[in-house]
């Protein structure tokens, strides 16, 4: 019979058993909850095993649920998960009652093999220490000036590579180029190291980058794989592969740290020398072990490489889909930089882009922001509820619940953005005079909000605008295959699955 055929499939049978187990646990919890008649809980959207079945399209799945319920629950065998696209709840979680919603032990255990005790995985004193030091570093003029030079240099290198592809009219994976370029940038700015990953001269850095991407995907898989701890104990499957990825990552990072330590030992008066990179300045103000430095470095990498490269990749994709907007951005850049002729020297053009010129690029700023609204680099963010609570919408949250806000889904909600929510319209960010207008960070959540708001927001915008200004002044971009579907890869950051093949034409 057909029913017997379905149940004989081992994955479907296992998931069916687990879903039934979730429902049984939920019923038992309700019976044991003495205050159940006084409390109201958000509507049930499904179980965590529905996420498993929809893993490769999980953000579509959660968006569909958010359209039915602004906030909903997924039942799980160990804890419920609450997902919200309601800015009122987001503000309460990220700001009003911030202390009650932490990364928590659950997130820490899932993330620690990759991110360790870095800022994105911890709470308490470790988070405050790194936040304080990082906040100071990102606010210094030294870092702003240094990073601007790095961004311009790497944008010019990238433009030279794109120019070679344009000459041969060959497709290129622009996401791969952005990943290499932003990796070069973050290692130079954060750690004072020249990788030159873009030009293909550093095979080690390429292996590191690939291992980091794979580790990110396998780390996110832990959130839907209830057997991951057993797999880790037995060193099989995805956990065995993750272990190999982590070893490659660690070998690379510890080598970098040792290079820095040797430099300190062999350079006279090292601490009195003016240092521009973040790692040197961390070493100057804090004595810490190599494991902690490793964790800090990897958290900077995921913040400075993946998020920016993913955003730029989706930005080029949207400009390919909307060529009129691409031309409008290019026209604004040329006007702001006073470029009237064809650009022949990429390095000179990049070096000449001033902060004042970047500030005038309101339409470019709006187009990048509109891309982040629809394709946020971090599509979902999770916390753990520390104590029983009631949200502003009147529904209860239990201690131990995982609570998440949904940047990807929120960017597609008509109740937030209007009937044209799923359309790409940079104009929604501009006033009548064409000046960029900020929106509430609890509605546009691409950079988080509250005490954990992204410290590198302006840093990221400067890099994205610099790269975009150089590339769009010199080239027109088209998709290599207009009919090929473009989807995301389910991992911590929203990468384009399989990269983005484009063709560049010289202007």
Q: Features of this protein?
A:
alpha+beta, 507 residues, 9% strand, disordered N terminus, 6-stranded mixed sheet, 58% helix, 21 helices
Note down, in words, how this protein is organized.
Its cofactor is heme. Keywords: Heme, Iron, Membrane, Metal-binding, Monooxygenase, Oxidoreductase, Transmembrane, Transmembrane helix. This is Cytochrome P450. Belongs to the cytochrome P450 family. It comes from Erythroxylum novogranatense. With 507 residues, the protein is an alpha+beta fold. Helix content is 58%, strand content 9%. It contains 21 helices and 13 strands. The chain has helices at 2-7, 10-32, 48-53, 58-68, 87-96, 104-115, 124-139, 141-168, 174-191, 203-221, 228-234, 237-266, 278-285, 290-321, 323-337, 346-351, 355-360, 362-374, 407-410, 414-417, 457-474; strands at 44-47, 71-75, 81-84, 101-102, 172-173, 381-385, 389-390, 396-397, 402-405, 475-479, 488-489, 495-496, 501-506. The strands form 4 sheets. It has a 6-stranded mixed β-sheet with strand order 1-2-3-9-6-4, with helices on both faces. Strands 5-13-10 form a 3-stranded antiparallel β-sheet. Strands 7-8 form a two-stranded antiparallel ribbon. The radius of gyration is 24 Å and the shape is globular. The N and C termini lie far apart (63 Å).
Report how far the terminal alpha carbons are from each other.
Answer: 63 Å
Q: What is the mean pLDDT?
A: 87
Q: How much beta, percentage-wise?
A: 5-15%
**Which residues form runs of ≥5 with pLDDT under 50?**
1-10
Overall geometry: globular
Helix content: 55-70%
Counting H and I runs of at least 4 residues, what is the number of helices? 21
The total strand number stands at 13
Major sheet details: 6 strands, mixed
